[in-house]
Amino acid sequence: MGDAALNARARRPSAQPETAKITDLSHEGRGVAHVDGKTVFIDDALPGELVEWRRLKRGRNFDEGQLLRVIEPSPDRVEPRCIHFGMCGGCVLQHLSVDQQLQFKQKQLMDSLTRIGKVTPEETLPPLQAGTWNYRRRARLAARWVPKKNRTVVGFRERSTPYITDLQRCEVLQAPMDQLLVPLSELVTALSIRNRVPQIEVAVADNAVALVVRVLEPLTEADTELLRRFGREHSVQMFLQPGGYETVAPMDDVAPLEYRLPSFDLTLQFLPTDFVQVNGPLNLQMIDRAIAMLAPTAEDRVLDLFCGLGNFSLPLARRAGQVVGVEGEAALVERARANAARNGLTNARFHTANLADEGILSASWAGKFDKVLLDPPRAGAKEVLPLVAKSGADTVLYISCHPGSLARDAGILVHEHGYKLQAAGVMDMFPHTAHVESAALFVKK
Predict the structure, then answer these.
(1) Rounded mean pLDDT of the chain?
(2) How far apart are CA 295 and CA 305, in angstroms?
(3) How far apart are CA 271 and CA 203, in angstroms?
(4) Catalytic machinery residues
């Protein structure tokens, strides 16, 4: 047998059960074991557990395994609430106690800051957490006609497969959407174009629920009536999306979606496809913390980068002398301006700009600011950091949805621009998932 054949056999997964001690959790929430000097990732296994597992994949640097049974369980293991846990890719940590989920996320943040950014906060912020079930007010559900089942499956993607989980209900979707998945499946199944409806976007506002149905072919009159009847029966606003987001339109007259920020006497309106923070109760806590940490006064000029439709800008404007919000998506900027006017705020100005463009240093809105807030996407805010430093701001609050990009940018602010990392901590925007949302406060040395 040649070397190539021997190597191929060595890479072939073994069907024989093995045992391993789990030593850690990966950033994706998988159990980590070390077997014969090689790292193995095992779904649904927890640190401290002795497990029986089967090897599924062999790789050059690590292997992947399937959990067969837990021989010695962790004291932090709990019974998952969702009947689809283990198959659905929406949640991966339901088997871990909520307190330990927070510890896991805090460790991910601190490890990233130390390893990537070479920085350590002077203070660790207590984690923020709101309700851990039925918290999700925005979601994108996949839909697929399955001839073998003679119906349309609606849900989130399965773990590590292109298939869609056949959800009966969802424990993290906000009511009433948590119990509308089967009716949605029945609705799409009844359409003449059931195999041409790939997704349904969900938006649960404080005053209404909206569904955006993606359609790849025109609807018949019967299809249109089915959709309208569903909306009436379930008190849901129905929208159609035949093309890009610019084609989204309501099927009937609808009330504007809105969410309230009662601590600041604000109501923000948004469209069903707009970005809003997924966890409404956690968003309220996050804004309260942001305002407390920045502590803006009537003399302060504040810059809000990646401002969206004004989620932070408008509360800041209630306290600061002037707020300048900047966002890359022009439609969101228009929404922010309208929200400011609707709430009677005249001290907030909004601009459209590509914040990943290194040429923004010369933008007309750039200048001197006392405080800066950043809430960038997963890629972070590397390109805009020179502008932050040039602004002369003595306080910078960075809201992050990815600890790796935050750590990189924290290192730049500290080691290149003369800031120190005063405090950092996690905010549990997505309970039961491995997603890490966090806040980091920087002050001038």
Answers:
(1) 95
(2) 17
(3) 9
(4) 401
